[in-house]
Design goal:
It comes from Pendulispora brunnea. 27% of the residues lie in helices and 28% in strands. The protein has 607 residues and is α+β, with helices and mostly antiparallel strands. Among the domains are: 272-385, Thrombin, subunit H, CATH 2.40.10.480; 500-607. The N and C termini lie far apart (99 Å).
């Protein structure tokens, strides 16, 4: 006889606990709810006055082996532990415990030692998340086969199940403080559930998606697309006046999210969603800056939470970026050797976990690597929890400019990063520092650069108005296979930049590239057009050679355009000889008809 998994779970759990028991309350997560003018929230805050969440263990865990082993490293001491057990979901870190599921059961481990605390059968229900306050661990499960509904367990430290709740609502990740479970559900509610009394003393209504609750730094937070704090303002969440962090809007590669929607349950193996994420750390430290896009920085507007170090972070496979939380501007870029699959924002830094099991500490201000922990082996997925850990370090001995950091990221030979690289090019283009020009040229010198990225770099170079010395140095380089110079310089965009600056110092070098056989047709067209502004009598001999060599053999539109531009220069600066040469090209039967027509029009232009 087949028994439904949810029923099996109820049977196995209620049979093993003497207190509490299974609940199936229609009113606990009912939307037929009347606001109590925040009296319940005020009562909960009074009850928890002086009770702060215990600091969570600073730890990174990974799924290793064949998905049958948890590996862990303590971030403060570097001590490691492992726990072998079949896994069917990514484990969760809740305060001072690690909760995992697999083999038809859910289990809890001491986060510092890896010691098994308890295990209970589940019937194979999928794990969603967990919260813990040192006395109770509250775990939420989905339903098998994608069925609607959730199951919640409140388990005491000795393994006894104090409460089991069945509901047809979609429940998120809970937090627990002082015997009260904060349970998000319905994408906009948080019910406060008294585990002992089996009662709901308060409920909070939000006006945006909220699917997760957690404790950090002595406070309780809720969120999904932004972060809300449980404090004296939380009773006004329905009026959109609660203390919160909302990151300033800006374009980011891969469109990362702060927290994935709850229906996207973390897979056992990390996905692209794990590699492309944003992270932020709200804090009680009043010396940092509020994330307030409405004011563009400065003093916090009422209702805005403070962000640690005024930094938020984004990961994009191997690229990690630090942003100003007030304005959204890019502050630094760090390029990691391997792909990042998890992270966590601390009070004074950012931690990343990669697929090789390395956990790296980055400084908040500059993104400098400050230290490392090692899980001991490659991992399929990773989870990092940072609560009280301090990540500090001094300024590097040889500071690197943001432009150089961006250039390094752009040179990473990975076609999967093309979308992100295009955004980074725009970031370089926005920098006033002339070193940004050098960085763009360096990127163009990379033979492996993506054609899509190269097109953006060319546009950015053409728009530069600083860094002329770097562009002149680039023009002096020539393709030389024997000396490992495998690409000609981006002559066309450089020419456009000098023309826009009306700087004729580059005219001799630009003219010489017109005769270089490796100069691409597009560059010939752009360079010749720029020389109509920059060239003078000194460049005429070189441009005569180009004109003679190409007017009868030009077949592509860019080369024909380059011939027309050089013809214009010859008419302007070449005297009688220049005019005679253009006349000869017009009269020649070898000149293409469309090119001949364009050359005739030049007499109207230069008259």
């Amino acid at each position: 006889m087949k028994i439904a998994k949810s029923l099996l779970l109820a049977m196995t759990l209620t049979a093993c606990t003497a207190c509490g028991g299974a609940l199936n309350r229609a009113d606990l997560f009912s939307s037929d709810w009347s606001a109590d003018r925040a009296q319940g929230v005020d009562a909960v805050r009074s009850r928890l006055a002086g009770t702060k969440p215990s600091p969570g263990t600073d730890i990174a865990i990974g799924v290793a082996g064949n998905g049958d082993k948890i590996v862990a490293v303590l971030l403060d001491s570097g001590e490691k532990w492992t726990y072998a057990h079949p896994l069917d979901a990514r484990p969760a870190i809740a305060g001072q415990v690690v909760v995992g599921s697999g083999g038809g059961e859910v289990f809890a481990l001491d986060a510092r030692t890896g010691k098994k605390l308890w295990a209970r059968p589940t019937g194979g229900l999928p794990l969603i998340g967990a919260g813990d306050d040192g006395q109770y661990t509250v775990i939420t499960f989905g339903r098998s086969g994608g069925a609607r509904g959730s199951t919640l367990l409140a388990v005491e430290r000795d393994g006894d199940v104090r409460r089991q709740i069945e509901t047809d609502k979609e429940v998120g990740v809970p937090a627990v403080v002082g015997g009260l479970a904060f349970i998000p559900w319905g994408r906009q509610y948080v019910s406060v559930f008294d585990i002992v009394a089996a009662d709901e003393p308060a409920r909070i209504l939000f006006r945006e998606q909220v699917s997760r609750a957690w404790t950090q730094g002595g406070s309780v937070y809720f969120g999904e697309n932004s972060v809300y704090r449980f404090d004296e303002r939380i009773k006004d969440a329905s009026l959109q006046k609660a203390s919160h962090v909302m990151l300033p809007p800006r374009e980011l590669p891969g469109s990362p999210v702060l927290m994935p929607p709850i229906e996207e349950r973390p897979k056992l193996v990390a996905t692209a969603r794990d590699r492309v994420r944003t992270y932020v750390r709200p804090t009680n430290n009043v010396q940092t800056t509020a994330a307030n896009p409405g004011k563009g920085g400065g003093a916090p507007e009422e209702g805005w939470l403070v962000v640690a170090n005024s930094r938020y972070y984004a990961t994009y496979f191997r690229i990690i970026m630090g942003f100003d939380a007030s304005r959204g501007g890019l502050s630094w870029v760090y390029t990691h050797p391997t792909e990042v699959i998890a992270g966590a924002a601390g009070e004074d830094g950012f931690l990343i976990c990669d697929e090789q099991g390395k956990v790296v500490f980055l400084s908040a201000n500059q993104g400098d690597p400050l230290g490392e922990r090692d899980l001991g082996e490659p991992v399929k997925s990773c989870v990092v929890q940072v609560d009280a850990l301090a990540v500090r370090g001094g300024r590097p001995a040889r500071p690197v400019s943001l432009a150089d950091e961006l250039a390094e990221a752009l040179r990473v030979p990975d076609p999967e990063l093309a979308t992100g690289k295009r955004l980074l090019v725009r970031e370089i283009a926005s920098l006033e520092d002339e070193v940004a020009t050098k960085a763009l040229i360096d990127v163009m010198n990379d033979p492996a650069i993506s054609p899509f990225v190269a097109a953006d770099v060319r546009t950015a170079l053409a728009g530069r108005r600083k860094g002329g010395r770097y562009m002149l140095a680039a023009l002096e380089r020539r393709y030389d296979y024997l000396h490992n110079v495998l690409k000609p310089p981006p002559v066309g965009p450089i020419a456009q930049s000098f023309a826009a600056m009306n700087d004729a110092s580059a005219a001799p070098l630009l003219s010489s590239h017109m005769l270089d056989p490796v100069t691409p047709d597009q560059d010939l067209q752009e360079t010749a057009a720029a020389l109509t502004t920059l060239a003078g009598p000194a460049e005429v001999p070189t441009l005569k050679q180009f004109f003679v060599l190409n007017y009868a053999s030009a077949t592509t539109a860019p080369v024909k355009a380059a011939v027309v531009s050089t013809g214009q220069i010859l008419l302007k600066h070449g005297g009688k000889d220049g005019r005679a040469l253009v006349d000869r090209a017009i009269a020649s039967k070898l000149t293409a008809p469309d090119l001949r027509a364009k050359l005739k029009e030049l007499y109207e232009v230069v008259r």
